[in-house]
UniProtKB/TrEMBL annotation:
The keyword Electron transport does not apply. Belongs to the mannose-6-phosphate isomerase type 2 family. Its EC number is 2.7.7.13. GO terms for molecular function: GTP binding; isomerase activity; mannose-1-phosphate guanylyltransferase (GTP) activity. It catalyses: alpha-D-mannose 1-phosphate + GTP + H(+) = GDP-alpha-D-mannose + diphosphate. This is mannose-1-phosphate guanylyltransferase. Residues 5-289 form the Nucleotidyl transferase domain. It is an enzyme of class 2 (transferase). InterPro entries: GMPP_N, Man1P_GuaTrfase/Man6P_Isoase, Man6P_isomerase-2_C, ManC/GMP-like_b-helix, Mannose-6P_isomerase_type2, NTP_transferase_dom, Nucleotide-diphossugar_trans, RmlC-like_jellyroll. Pfam families: ManC_GMP_beta-helix (PF22640), MannoseP_isomer (PF01050), NTP_transferase (PF00483). PANTHER family: MANNOSE-1-PHOSPHATE GUANYLYLTRANSFERASE. Keywords: GTP-binding, Isomerase, Nucleotide-binding, Nucleotidyltransferase, Transferase.
């Protein structure tokens, strides 16, 4: 059996703000270990003969980050499907199923969120193989995590009668929404309830057949989105109009709660969805006082807390059960029991038309990154890094001029009809309305300081004429 992993890399991870943001969500960050959560998910699948190269589903705005992170770990994906907009998991998986059917009519899909922690990979692989036996008989398998505590932050799956095939596998009796504490304690005591992991194994054909029965609008729209999709560099863009026509729904609501073929495979695999700061505290190694710290952190009389510093010294004194997270432009302080309310902070930022929920001060681009250093009335200063071979678009600004000072590396600068090479300590001036381009022709990263001045300094004041990354 060939099993095609489908890694879902959507979502903004708002409950891990301020570290996770829309432009750089938790799955693309090294939240738990040195590698990003997407990279850990992809590497978890390596070295298994039954598992093919993964198919990635992600948003358009993350496409270059996803591709670069996979390149860094030498994983060549089967494809990267670009969602024009988020429509929840049922359409995302349906698009992947249509895509895989064109590759392999008998394709079996292993659906995995990109942002989960699984500490016991051998047990995980064993669970996949148990589920594969059920899929051979037409089942749609979901992985139920053996609960270790009466968690109220997870949905549950109640198992029904045992199956005649598969070791310790069951029909699904019902799916249960996140319970209160007393109900969760009853579930754990009963022994036949499992955490709903959001991971699945089924044939692409089987999923689409059930989807056609229960949510034909999703099946039809996603078929059109794939069949009318088109290549863009190394990506496959789903047709925008067709995908937008799909209803937004989860796999559970669209299919798994209705199908007669749902089965649950219990799995004790050290799983955590890292859906909050308290969950992140749980999966990391604690010191003798129960603390998890990262960065330039000083603790005195602190216990059972998570303290993370990204850019400066953070000192915490005499507190218990708190989360403190510092970034360049935001600081979060919250009791560990109240971390679910972090989402309300993000909602507040949205309502105030602020940007701290959208992106960090360092913003990644396919050619490198830039970081805001200072901003004031009619001026802005950025630190820019261009990767070797990186090339910004040929562009023009209506409202700002720019000064570029090379700190290290070599810059190839086009300004109007003039093309010149600049090296360390050299500078140039880009007038308002002048066509210009910045390139790094060297083998080392190019670092420069950009000083913008003018009446409007927004990122949307860019008119692109040529772009090797085909951005619009």
């Amino acid at each position: 059996m060939k099993i095609y992993p489908v890694i879902l890399s959507g979502g903004a991870g708002t409950r891990l703000w301020p570290l996770s943001r829309a432009a750089l969500p938790k799955q693309l960050l090294p939240v738990v270990a040195d590698k990003t959560m997407l990279q850990d998910t992809a590497l978890r699948l390596n070295g298994r003969a039954e598992l093919m190269q993964p198919l990635i589903v992600c948003g358009n705005e993350h496409r270059f980050l996803v591709a670069e992170q996979l390149r860094e770990i030498n994983v060549k994906p089967l494809g990267i499907l670009l969602e024009p907009e988020g429509r929840n998991t049922a359409p995302a998986v349906a698009a992947a199923a249509h895509y895989l059917k064109a590759v392999d009519a008998d394709a079996v899909m292993l659906v995995l969120p990109a942002d989960h922690v699984i500490s016991d990979t051998e047990a995980f692989y064993e669970a996949i193989m148990r589920a594969a036996e059920l899929v051979e008989h037409g089942s749609l398998a979901t992985f139920g995590i053996v609960p270790t505590a009466p968690e109220t932050g997870y949905g549950y799956i109640k198992s029904g009668e045992p199956l005649p095939v598969g070791d310790n596998c069951f029909k699904v009796d019902r799916f249960v929404e996140k319970p209160d504490r007393a109900t969760a304690e009853g579930f754990v005591a009963a022994g036949n309830y499992f955490w709903n992991s959001g991971m699945f194994l089924f044939r692409a054909e089987s999923y689409l057949k059930e989807l056609q029965q229960f949510q034909p609008a999703i099946a039809s729209a996603t078929f059109d989105a794939v069949s009318k999709g088109y290549r863009d560099l190394d990506f496959c863009r789903l047709n925008e109009e067709a995908f937008a026509a799909s209803p937004s729904d989860s796999i559970d609501y669209a299919v798994m709660e209705h199908t007669r073929h749902a089965v649950v495979v219990p799995a004790a695999i050290g799983w955590n969805d890292v859906g909050s700061w308290s969950a992140l505290w749980e999966v990391q190694q604690h010191d003798e006082n129960g603390n998890v710290s990262r960065g330039d952190v000083y603790l005195d009389g602190v216990s059972n807390s998570l303290v993370r510093a990204e850019s400066r010294c953070v000192a915490v004194v005499g507190l218990d059960n708190v989360v403190v997270v510092e970034t360049n432009d935001a600081v979060l302080v919250v009791h560990k029991d109240q971390v679910q309310r972090v989402k309300q902070v993000v909602d507040h930022l949205k309502c105030q038309d602020r940007t701290e929920h959208l992106h960090h001060t360092k913003v990644y681009r396919p050619w490198g990154c830039y970081e805001g250093i200072d901003i004031g009335d009619r001026f802005q200063v950025k630190r820019i890094t261009v990767n070797p071979g990186g090339k910004l678009s040929l562009q023009m600004h209506h409202h700002r001029a720019e000064h570029w000072i090379v700190v290290s590396g070599t810059a190839k600068v086009t300004c109007g009809d003039k093309v010149e090479l600049l090296t360390e300590n050299e500078s140039t001036y880009i007038p308002i309305g002048m066509n210009h381009r910045l390139e790094n022709p060297g083998k080392l990263p190019l670092h420069l300081i950009e000083v913008q001045s003018g009446s409007y300094l927004g990122e949307d004041d860019i008119v692109r004429f040529e772009d090797v990354y085909q951005r619009t």
